């Protein structure tokens, strides 16, 4: 049995307000404290968090979580009154989700990289769903008995109740009669399945009521770049009668997110070619309401839905940390009670509600807590510490991440996160710049295992939310369009200039490390932004834009697929692709490069790193290339992740050493 770690509930810390790097105090006179515990091993940071997935039963009495047990994934399950876990060994695998189908069964979603007949392009990451009886250990995989399907799921996984019994819905592609997307439900008691609806293969999303009634679906036309929304006019329990009610403008994306406030309308997420988005409610007759997320700031927001009715009940706002704005009085009271209950200095996020929303799993981090899950019953005041994510990491080695801003060379303010090494003076430190992936994504102030590991070895770490990042409004996103390898890149080196001006870092000792788009940025730092970095580390990075676009077209089956259009918005004019492709500019590389890639990467193919290695070697440049068999884009295989971090540290020690590197 793995011991469930318990931590004190009240700690110092919390999200700090952003400060300008120009006014960030440098404490040159400070004397670093001496650690009371030894430097933690790499494994304490780089091993996957103890909790891979966690779920709460509908009645709020039972918790299930997925964790690692040696080389195997393991389900631990227990009641909140008796946290002695039962254990089910799953074997090795890539777990993508977990939730309760009823109070006795969990639904486990895992994935595999494969070529399957009937699907476009290269190898894909396919998901499957398995119902597991926690009492007996018996399990069954969805779509193994239904004719015409691979035993995978495309989506629409949702717990519903029909005539008092729990079912789980799922969609899949049926390879009969020209192909169609089918929506099924699976009864938890005995696994019996029933088809609910069939629709054309262009179907993307389904909207399902908590009673299991398919209410709406959306389809995407690649030829016109338009979305069409259909409403089911048949009553519950009858054959579906979908009727078109709305067609989007060309180039405007549409996502079915959940039920509207009356239970018959839907909440739609819109985003256009400029990356600007909004949420609106659409009625059964296709009438769009006003924007639901008008606000005076530019913070990222997303809708919240009631855990029982499924209806819109507010918005979450995502700045450095999450805040909740519920319209439902009970949920609002619960959200307001999180901090007083867990601790005023915790950054808290709601993981899952029971059907009685007063019973909830909450995730929290603080200045000295790298992440802990709690069960809270607001009806009784009961709080149970479930598990810590990094139980082998001493509190004193968790260093603080500070929100900062700096000004790019064209005057644009850039928000970033700075992590300084513990027990070291913040003066003339070696620096690692870590750009995030996406690129239309962002970093947060949450615990980052990679930044923390580097800081423990004596490095300062800066994580810029460069132009094009999400979370700062549509205009900030569009400022990144066409700036791939250009201003998006110099936003990174401008962070070095700002830190060096304060003598926080030594500009002669700077490295760049990134994954996915961040891996591209690392390669571009070596080839397109000379004189800044002593070495560059690319994990699953893009090196050749033309070939990456071609791969995405092959995988999606169309040059008008959403993923293709997304890349093109940021990459800009295709005529300039060679100019901003590191593999095509390898002769300009001015520092050693480390390439890391997993063989099972279906997002950025390993060919991208192979191209870069070949180009650098042909140009006589220093390059190392490490591959990990079976590793995917998300670094799911824990043993590979640990070895990867050790490889990164060894490369840094060789080319950009830290005085504190052990």
Automatic annotation (TrEMBL):
Gene Ontology molecular function, alphabetical: serine-type endopeptidase activity
Keyword terms of this UniProt record: Hydrolase, Signal
GO BP annotations, alphabetical order: proteolysis
Presence of keyword Signal: yes
Signal peptide extent: 1-28
Domain Peptidase S9 prolyl oligopeptidase catalytic: from-to ranges: 446-655
Pfam short name (any one): Peptidase_S9
Protein name: Prolyl oligopeptidase family protein
Organism name: Asticcacaulis biprosthecium C19
């Amino acid at each position: 049995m793995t011991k469930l770690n318990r931590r004190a509930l009240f700690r110092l810390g919390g999200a700090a307000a952003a400060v300008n790097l120009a006014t960030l105090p440098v404490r040159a006179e400070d004397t670093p404290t001496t650690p009371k515990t030894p430097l933690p091993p790499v494994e304490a940071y780089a091993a996957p968090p103890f909790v891979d997935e966690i779920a709460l039963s509908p009645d709020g009495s039972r918790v299930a979580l997925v964790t690692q047990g040696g080389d195997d994934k393991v389900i631990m399950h227990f009641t909140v009154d008796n946290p002695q876990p039962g254990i089910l060994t799953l074997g090795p695998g890539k777990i993508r989700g977990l939730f309760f189908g009823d109070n006795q069964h969990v639904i486990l979603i895992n994935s595999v990289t494969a070529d399957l007949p009937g699907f476009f392009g290269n190898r894909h990451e396919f998901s499957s769903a398995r119902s597991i009886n926690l009492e007996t250990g018996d399990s069954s995989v969805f779509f193994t008995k239904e004719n015409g399907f691979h035993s995978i799921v495309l989506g629409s996984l949702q717990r519903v109740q029909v005539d008092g019994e729990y079912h789980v819905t799922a969609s899949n592609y049926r390879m009969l009669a020209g192909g169609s997307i089918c929506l099924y439900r699976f009864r938890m008691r005995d696994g019996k399945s029933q088809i609910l609806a069939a629709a054309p293969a262009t179907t993307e999303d389904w909207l399902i009521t908590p009673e299991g009634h398919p209410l709406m679906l959306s389809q995407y036309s690649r030829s016109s770049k338009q979305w069409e929304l259909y409403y089911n006019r048949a009553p519950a329990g009858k054959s579906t009668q979908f009727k078109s009610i709305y067609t989007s403008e060309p180039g405007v994306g549409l996502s079915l997110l959940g039920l509207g406030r009356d239970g018959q309308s839907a909440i739609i997420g819109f985003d256009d070619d400029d990356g600007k988005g909004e949420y609106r409610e659409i009625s059964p007759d296709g009438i769009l309401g006003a924007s639901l997320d008008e606000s005076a700031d530019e913070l990222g927001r997303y809708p919240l839905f009631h855990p029982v009715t499924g209806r819109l009940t507010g918005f979450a706002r995502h700045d450095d940390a999450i805040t909740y704005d519920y319209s439902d009085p009970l949920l609002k009271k619960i959200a307001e009670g999180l901090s007083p209950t867990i601790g005023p200095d915790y950054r808290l996020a709601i993981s899952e509600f029971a059907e009685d929303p007063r019973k909830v799993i909450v995730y929290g981090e603080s200045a000295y807590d790298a992440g802990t899950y709690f069960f809270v019953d607001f009806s009784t005041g009961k709080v149970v510490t479930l598990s810590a994510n990094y139980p082998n990491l001493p509190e004193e080695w968790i260093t603080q991440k500070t929100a900062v801003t700096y000004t790019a060379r064209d005057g644009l303010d850039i928000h970033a996160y700075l992590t300084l090494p513990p027990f070291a003076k913040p003066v003339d430190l070696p620096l690692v710049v870590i750009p995030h992936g996406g690129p239309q994504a962002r970093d947060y102030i949450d615990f980052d295992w990679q930044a923390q590991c580097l800081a423990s070895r004596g490095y300062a770490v800066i994580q810029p939310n460069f132009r094009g990042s999400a979370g700062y409004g549509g205009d900030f996103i569009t400022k990144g369009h066409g700036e791939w390898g250009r201003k998006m890149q110099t936003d990174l080196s401008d962070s070095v200039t700002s830190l060096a001006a304060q003598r926080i870092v030594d500009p002669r000792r700077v490295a760049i490390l990134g994954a996915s788009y961040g891996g591209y940025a690392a390669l571009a730092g070596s080839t397109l932004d000379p004189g800044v970095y002593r070495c560059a580390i690319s994990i699953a990075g893009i090196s050749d834009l033309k070939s990456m676009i071609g791969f995405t077209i092959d995988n999606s089956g169309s040059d008008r697929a959403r993923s293709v259009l997304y890349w093109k918005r940021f990459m800009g004019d295709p005529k300039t692709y060679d100019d901003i492709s590191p593999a095509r500019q390898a002769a300009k590389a001015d520092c050693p490069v480390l390439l890391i890639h997993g063989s099972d990467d279906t997002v950025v193919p390993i060919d991208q790193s192979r191209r870069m290695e070949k180009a650098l070697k042909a140009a006589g440049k220093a390059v190392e290339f490490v591959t990990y068999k079976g590793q995917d884009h998300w670094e799911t295989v824990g043993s590979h992740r640990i070895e990867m971090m050790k490889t990164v540290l060894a490369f840094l020690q060789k080319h950009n050493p830290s005085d504190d590197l052990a």
